Amino acid sequence: MSAPRPIYLDHHATTPLDPRVLAAMRPWWEENFANPHSAEHAMGRAAEAAVQEARERVAELLGADPREIILTSGATEANNLAIKGAARQAGPRGGEGGPRRIITLATEHKCVLESVRDLAAEGFEPVILPVGADGVLDLDALRQALAVPTLLVSVMAVNNETGVIQPLAEIGALVKEHGALFHTDAAQAAGRIGLDVEEVRADLLSLSGHKIYGPKGIGALYVRRRPRVRLAPLFSGGGQERGLRSGTLPAPLVVGLGEAARIAGGEGLLDAGRIAGQRAILLEGLRAAIPGLRVNAEAAPRVAGNLNLTFPGVTAAALLGALPDLMLSTGSACTSAEISPSHVLTAMGIGAEEAARTLRIGLGRFTSPQEMQQAAAMIGAAWKSLSQHEAAAE
Length: 394
Fold this sequence. Notes:
Layout: E1 7-8, H1 19-25, H2 27-30, H3 42-62, E2 69-72, H4 75-89, E3 101-105, H5 110-118, E4 125-129, H6 139-145, E5 150-154, H7 168-177, E6 181-185, E7 204-208, E8 219-223, H8 251-289, E9 294-295, E10 306-310, H9 316-322, E11 326-327, H10 343-347, H11 352-355, E12 358-362, H12 369-393
Parallel strand pairs: 1-11, 3-4, 3-5, 5-6, 6-7
Antiparallel strand pairs: 2-8, 7-8, 9-10, 10-12
């Protein structure tokens, strides 16, 4: 008898590669493998044209100009380039009399938090704002922080653990009113919610290919042209990507990012509606099986595929151990090796004991209603067994 097929419910960590994306990339590995910067010959020019088409597709997804898309290795690099690049372009210690304040949230991805903190050693002032119990930024708190001249505000569009959506348009308007730059980490938002850089007033926006059913190792940073946002590059090289990100572009990965962006632009909102229906099936089944189950930040706006759940009486580690055929996580894949509680849950006022009983579930494009029913039954049975074992041990 064959082993049961695993059910993948960790789409915030990474998404499976869409077969259409793989098909689009294959010729650029097998047939035209040329360097896209080799303009002297036909194969190089063809690769460069494919890169440009992919850039246009990414721009279309964001309502941007293709000239505003800088290709990177992923959102982590894009976030570092946006935050450190903007600060360092302003000059050592913020320039002569210029603003040195950089504002972000306590629930941001670690690469954003660490970038902001790294800049403190260079004379900039990091300001880490709290969020409410629902994970949403208080606009009044941001307004008060902006009363001090500010260089940059960085706010994640969709949280990678809770799926909470921040009010980007309101944040962007407030930031622009105070004359600061606005950056958003949109790795979890692109392809899941509508995103338009003009509507949200973004100056800088980061995304990653493997969060939108594209390949790993490729991402992009949107950099506004009018009014022009200037960045200092993170490293030196051949001057590719307008001098902001040197290095040979991996044409197959770039093509994959472009195809993933094209599909997301055409199907992302349809995906969201279907996934929301599946999430309802899963949650209904779990609540029927597990009295006292809590959805964290349940009242806040959130992406369709997310459930952040705290289980009564049973640790997340124990549940994961009892569910080898369900691919789940306790939080961010970038920090899952840490022993300390999730900094996101801590910022929302969730204590260490509750955080240890919390799982993140992420649905996606290729999950099915039948899998949601199976997952609910499997989690419910595992929770019941573990709860009975705990009760017997007492």
